[in-house]
Structures are given as C-alpha cells and as structure tokens.
Amino acid sequence: MQAVSDRYVQSILDLPRSTKRVLAVLVDSCLCILTIWLAFCFRLNDWVALEGAQLLTIPVSLVIALPIFITMGLYRAIFRFLGWSAFITVIKAITIYGLAFMVVFTAISFPGIPRTIGIMQPLLLLLAIGLSRFMARYFLSEAYKRILRQNAQTNMLIYGAGSGGRQVAGALSGSADFKVVGYLDDDTSLHGSLIGGIAVYDPEKIVELSARLNVRTILLALPKIDRSRRNEILEQLRGARVAVRTVPDLNALAGGQAEFTDLQELDIEDLLGRTPVQPDQALLERNIRDRVVLVTGAAGSIGSELCRGVARLKPAALLILDQNEYGLYALENELVGSDPDADFQIVPLLASVCDESRIKTIMETWRPNTIYHAAAYKHVPLVEQNPVEGVKTNVFGTLTVAKAAIAAGADRFILISTDKAVRPTNIMGATKRLAEMTLQALAADGASTVLTMVRFGNVLGSSGSVVPLFRQQIRQGGPITLTHPEITRFFMTVPEATALVVQAGSMAKGGDVFVLDMGEPVKIIDLARRMVELSGLTIQDERNPSGDIGIITTGLRPGEKLYEELLIGDNPEPTEHLKIMRARERFMTWEQLAPKLQQLNLAAGGDVEGLRSILSELVQDYRPFDGVVDLVSVRQGISQ
Known about the structure:
By secondary structure, this protein is α/β, with parallel strands linked by helices.
C-alpha cells in the first residue's frame, strides 16, 4: 500500500507548478462550500440541505475568499515545506476573509440566513484550511523523504543466484545505499523465476536490463568459478555501463573480518584479465620453513608481500628490515595481528642497507639462512633526477648486504630485480643490472652463499603502480593520464610475483638470473579502458565525445621506454617450474668489476657525469638519458 501511495504522491509532485496551484484553489473552494454547509447544520442543529437564500452564502464566500487567498500568497508556498510563517499567513488571510464575511452576513444580514453563520463559517474555514495544510505537509513530506531515499539507492543486480548471492541479497535488504532489483545467473532453468521475490534474468540481456531497470552496479557473488570464466563474465559486462563490485573473500567473511555488505572494487587479477600462476608448495617451503629469513626493504610493496608469504610458511624467525620507521611499525603490527599464536619471532630492524656497520652487526647477530633483498629505489623518474642516491642504494646497498651475508655464512641471497635492467635507458634500470652483475661476479668468485636474482616486470597494486593512480583519477572524474598511447608493460600481481620469487630462489645454484614468465605484455591504454568500463563509465574520445572519462597523453618521461624486455640474451633454460626460466647472460669477473665499482663509488660522491659514464661502460646496452630532466613530466605521475 505504501508503494502505491508513494506512486500517487510522485505523480502529484511531477505535475506542473501551475496545475498544482489550480488544484489547491479547487480544494480551498470545496472547503469554503463544506464549511458553509457545516455552519448551517451546527446552527440549525440538524443535517440540512441548503436552499433559497442560504445558497447565496456560497458565491459570496468564494468571491471574498479566493482573491484574498491569492493576494496573500497562500498558493505560492510548497506544501511539503510549509513552516510556521506559512500558517501565520493562513491565519491572517482567513481573518481578513472573516471580517468581510461577517460584515455581509452578521452586520448587514439577509432574511433566512442566521447572523451567527457570519461568525461560525470563518472559524470552521480556518480550522479546515489549517488542517488541510498540516496534513498535506505531513503526508507529502514523509512520502517525499521515502521517494528521495529510494532514488538515492543504487539499483543493483547480483550475478549468481546461488546461496552466496541470496545471502548478499538478504544482507542488503535494509541498505540505504543499494536496492537489489534482480539476479543474473547462467542457469537457464532459473530465468524468469522469483527467488525471495527477486526476479532472475539472463546475463546475455545485460545491456537491455541495465537500461530498463536503471542498474548502476553489478555485484559478483560467484566465489567458486575459475579465473577464465570470471574473465569471460567481466568482458560480457564491460559494455553495459555498470560498475562491477565483488563481495569480500570467504575466509574474511568466515573469520568475521568482513561482512557481505562490505562491497569491494574488482581484484587486481580481474583488471589484469589473466590467470595467476599456482605456486609449488614444496618450492615455497624449501628455504623458509624452520629457517631464519631476512627481508630487506620489508615495508615496500614487494617486501611486505614477501614478509606475509614467509610468515605463512612458518620460519624459525622473520627479520624485517627497512629504513621507513612507520612502514616497519605498521608491517610488524600487521604480521603479529594476522597470527597472534605464531611460534616464531618477528624482529623489526630499522636500518639502511647502505650502512655497512649496521648491516654487518645484524648479520653476525641473527645469522639469517635466507635473505630476500627487496630494498631499492625503483621509480624511474625520481631515480633519474637523483642518480647518486640510486647508485648508492641499488648498487652499493646490494653489495653491502651480499658481502655481509657471505661473511655471516648465509645459505641464500635472492635479489629482487626488474625488467628495466634489460637494455636500460634509465639510471634505475642500469643500477639494477649492475647489482645483478655484482652478484654474478661474487658467485663466480667462489662465494659460499648461493647468490641469485629474480627479474620480473611491473606488479599491479604496488606503490607507484598504474592501478591506484587510475582508480584515483576515475574517482575524480578524469582524465586518465598516459605517457604514450602505445606504451606496453609486463604485469603480474604482487602475491603472484613474490611467490615466484621464493620458488625461484629455492632452485638457485649460484649466479643464476631467473626470469618470470609474465605472459603477454599489456597495453596500458587497454588496462585504462577496462578499468573505466568496469566502473560503469565510458571513455571520452573522438567516437564518443560525450563520454565520462577522457584519456590524455603527457609524453614519455626521462629514461622511459615504450616496451620492456625480460631477457638480454637468447635461449633461456627451463627450470623445474614451468613459469620460471634461467637466463644466460654475460657478466664481468670480480677482478674486472671491483676496480670499476671503486671508480663508481668515488663518482657517487657527487660527480654525476662521471657516474653516468662509468655506468655506460659497465652495463651492456645502457643508453643514458641525454638532457635536463623535466620536473613537470616527473610530477605527472610515477606509474608506468
């Protein structure tokens, strides 16, 4: 009944303003006639029909009342917003009307019309019009509030009419933000049926449904489908102009860390559109379980995910090292909070990898078995602007930790490298390649520690990744900024990359350069389009000038390449893991490299030109950026 009444109210509210005023005049006219009849009935103490001279009171009442009411502005006010000032105006208008009416029928008088009618009818009219205004204000206001709440709700379809989808629908039944208007399900036998009063629709008709039902959001409630089917569904939804959301992870729901109503943006894997590589548990555990593990750069994106993965594998102790005080504090709290009953020690170590004395003390004190060296400066434009710091941390920081590890008798040292180390055009890539070469030389020189490195491309969701940047730009209404429309990158998720790093380190023999199979490279502009369309928006371009989000190009930044590579040489060797290859790449012996590193260390004191020259000499195919770094382009986003 309430829904029906709300529809009637909405139809009234949708009337033109002039029509609503005419309607109010008609109502007041009827009230004038009604109160005249009631006045006669009360005066004569009987239910009577007006006749003869008594009928004269009706036109006189209307002729006096309506001009006064119109002049006093009784029909300019919006009834659902009436306040005390409007009611005072009603009293004033009817007072004037009452005085005029009393002059005619009480002071002057007419045969057959009792003088008291001139007094009683204005009082009854005041009561009738006052009550009519009060009731209109109350009912219209309440109905209007309900309508506003309904209009404020986002119409939602739930993809999946199984138990999970039904639970979500039940949880959202009282939501002020979302209104479930239907289910989508692949089961054709359910199409057209009702589940809990909610219709089930065919997903193939999503474009038509989203327009007809004014759907703005689709919630994926399909926890058991595989990644390939999930990607097919997302591709199907891209053209429907709907925002796609997911329910929290089932483990988080079961643990009470989330609720069904905590809707989330799509996972990084959904945006990437590829199936993550499943890890080999034996390789994961080989160098971690019951061992002392050290992670440098632990507060960073890769380092922190490595720490989470290591903690799940139950080491003897986990040493987390970083120079970022707050980041280290937050990571320690997270690791301790995620498993309060853990039977291993988590040790936060505040230190710089360039501090030789501090690193040596840490290694001698804790004697780590396995070291993951993730500490590095990795943002291309910033390192290009600060080359000395890049060399100190990426090259000499790596050398410092590696030498301390060898001296302390560590079993394994794994360097986290990057695809930008292959034929680098920037300082960051050159320093990472030189760090690789340093480990290769030490390994060939007979280091007792197994020194290895793992090279991979961009990780989605890491600090500086395009995904957080694009999400922020989409929330702000655009535009999305790209450095070049043809720029492509290899992509992998942070958990996937770190799991492969651990597995690669387990297969190392010494001096290995492992390369992760990251699948096909992805055009950044395609990723941007996918994110916009799965947010329920459209791309603004030449074909669609009225689109929601534009994409602009800012030009390649200093040292940036259109395409990245993972291999310097050819014919990489397979390993026992299908997604990990062992590269065959040339390097210098330690006798050749050591003097050059000494020269580079001297240049790192402030000789930028000398530093670039030595890097060019040491790193194969390095072509340094020639010119002044454009700070504007640096600030336009450290993403790709």
